[in-house]
Specification:
The complex is a heterodimer of chains A (267) and B (267). Chain A is mostly helical and 267 residues long. Chain A has one domain. Chain A has a two-stranded antiparallel ribbon. Chain A is globular, with a radius of gyration of 20 Å. In chain A, 37% of the residues are buried. The longest helix of chain B is centred in the middle third of the chain and has 27 residues. Helices cover 69% and strands 1% of the residues of chain B. Chain B has one domain. Chain B is built from twelve helices and two strands. In chain B, strand 1 and strand 2 form a beta hairpin. Chain B has 267 residues and is mostly helical. Classes of the chains: A mainly alpha (267), B mainly alpha (267). At the A-B interface, helix 2 and helix 8 of A face helix 2, strand 1 and helix 9 of B.
Chain lengths: 267, 267
């Protein structure tokens, strides 16, 4: 009953997303170009390293990882911070706060339609193409199920971080700077642009203690590991679960404490 | 209308940007946070670069410090587009809402007036970062130093910066024909990230594309030859100032063509 209410937001989001076909095509072109650059760059890196395996990853491993990370990025990064920032600046947030639904949930569910469309239009096709081209380099088994769980938690952590950063906008009224900082930190420290295995030692250990690696590194490592030990699986999923709960609580509390701060210039 | 001289335009330029800087300064928190955001972007770019290449003495015949020089070169040559042509980003909104019509009634060059309205100070941090990187790698490279080399470097930097400006102008101008040009602009903006790698890592087909179709090789790779390897400068390097100027003129024509056919929104 309750879910049905929220799913109507999802439906509206899907319909809205379908309106922007041109931007979708350009996004695909942009991704292809990015992947071409990534392919040649890493090929050159592996060629100059003189060995097949660098930091425990072969060229093929790295490439699959990065292609899927890009696909995951398109489906996770939905510019939620921009939305919250714009709502604050324009004052629209006041109307949203009056709605009989929590603002946090309202934003999440209005973006849920984009999650669905982006999953089917970018992640799934990429996944199918990659697994067909690499002839089974991606194991297809029970890991897919764990991957699903992992992605759901990644969505939640990512959303909590976005919401947290969006809340900061209540104080600063600055969108661009806050957003760019968040994006840069998340992309670098989550392993979305460079696999975690390549980071030098003290940095690598620190990254495992931060919530960011749970967004990209965790789901991808689960997906690409066909025969994981129970211990690795539990550690990865457990860490993710911890951060899901922790970030949820932190972002909720922070919002609650900050919402009184809202100053909206008369409109 | 009588032709106005360079002196007139220089004088009026500083008058216009002074207003913009004043208005930016009134949002001090936003300004400070945006500046920090920009510094973060540069640091993370540098860290990614360092993580990727620190383990390898050379990539494709390019030494670590040569690559670093290329990186610094690309940072400096994309600074002008960041600082001076930032208003391209709001072009689509102005065209969409009809505000753009106000520029059409000014008795000075339309393109000049539109671009001079915004000066993005944050870009200066990037300039400092780029110069620092170049100076450091230059000191590590055994290529000597002379006033003539510095002069060559400056000339090639300025002309290289025209490429990125041209790409952004042309991408922004698409909003005169299509509704939402954000994705086109965003795509063109990402090219800057690809300019920092030596073009030799690509296969011949893509080498051709990145030289003649999307000329990102002229942003850093070809022009930096003049300083890095003065003895083996390819012909295309000497052509790079010309390429910059030609692409800039083409983009100016496209932009003006769109602007002059603009009819407003009727409101």
């Amino acid at each position: 009953m309750k879910l049905k209410k929220y799913l109507s937001f999802t439906r509206a989001g899907i319909i809205e997303e379908m309106q922007f076909r041109a931007s979708f095509i350009i996004m695909v072109v942009g991704n292809l170009l990015y992947l071409i650059i990534v392919y040649f760059l890493w090929k050159a890196i592996y060629a100059s390293s003189g060995s097949e395996v660098v930091n425990g990853m072969t060229f093929e491993d790295t490439l699959i990882y990065l292609v899927l990370a890009t696909a995951l990025f398109n489906f996770l990064d939905l510019y939620v911070v921009w939305q919250i920032g714009r709502d604050i600046q324009s004052g629209k947030i006041v109307l949203d706060l009056c709605k009989p639904i929590e603002y946090r949930k309202y934003i999440f569910w209005s973006y849920s339609g984009s999650f669905v469309t982006h999953f089917f239009l970018t992640f799934l096709p990429t996944f199918i193409v990659v697994s067909a081209v690499t002839h089974g380099a991606i194991p297809l088994g029970i890991n897919l199920l764990f991957f699903m769980f992992s992605v759901v938690m990644a969505i939640s952590i990512n959303y909590s971080i976005d919401f947290f950063v969006g809340t900061i906008c209540l104080y600063t009224q600055s969108i661009w700077g806050i957003n760019i900082m968040k994006q840069v930190i998340v992309l670098l420290l989550s392993g979305a642009t460079i696999p975690l295995a390549f980071f030098p030692e003290p940095l690598k250990s620190i990254m495992y203690y931060l919530p960011f690696q749970s967004i990209y590194n965790a789901p991808l490592s689960i997906l690409l590991d066909g025969d994981p030990s129970v211990e690795t699986l539990l550690t990865t999923l457990g860490t993710q679960l911890f951060w899901t709960v922790a970030m949820l609580v932190i972002s909720k509390l922070f919002w609650k404490a900050s919402v009184k701060q809202i100053t909206v210039n008369g409109g | 209308m009588k032709k106005r001289g360079l002196r007139f335009y220089t004088k009026i330029y500083f008058k216009i940007i002074a207003q913009d800087i004043k208005s930016k300064m009134s949002y001090r928190a936003d300004f400070i946070i945006s500046t920090i955001g920009m510094i973060f972007t540069n640091i993370s770019g540098f860290v990614s670069f360092w993580i990727l290449f620190r383990n390898f003495p050379s990539i494709n015949g390019w030494s670590y410090h040569e690559m670093l020089f290329l990186y610094g070169f690309s940072l400096v040559s994309i600074t002008p587009v960041q600082c001076l042509f930032d208003n391209n980003w709001s072009l689509r909104q102005q065209v969409y809402t009809g505000d753009f019509i106000k520029y059409c009634f000014r008795p000075i060059n339309l393109f000049f007036y539109y671009q001079s309205e915004v000066f993005d100070i944050k870009g200066l941090g990037q300039l400092a970062f780029g110069i620092g990187t170049m100076a450091y790698s230059w000191s590590k490279l055994d290529i000597g130093f002379s006033a003539f080399m510095l002069l060559k470097l400056i000339v090639f930097l300025i002309t290289a910066s025209l490429i990125m400006i041209a790409l952004q102008n042309a991408a922004a101008a698409t909003c005169f024909w299509i509704q939402n040009s954000f994705y086109v602009l965003d795509l063109a903006f990402k090219f800057k990230d690809y300019a920092k790698y030596p073009i030799t890592i690509f296969s011949p087909v893509f080498r051709f594309i990145f030289t003649f179709v999307i000329p990102i090789a002229f942003i850093a790779y070809y022009p930096s030859y003049v300083v890095l390897r003065p003895d083996e400068v390819p012909l295309l390097s000497w052509l790079s100032p010309l390429v910059g100027v030609v692409f800039f003129i083409i983009s100016y024509k496209i932009w003006m063509r769109g602007a002059l056919k603009y009819n407003g929104t009727g409101s």
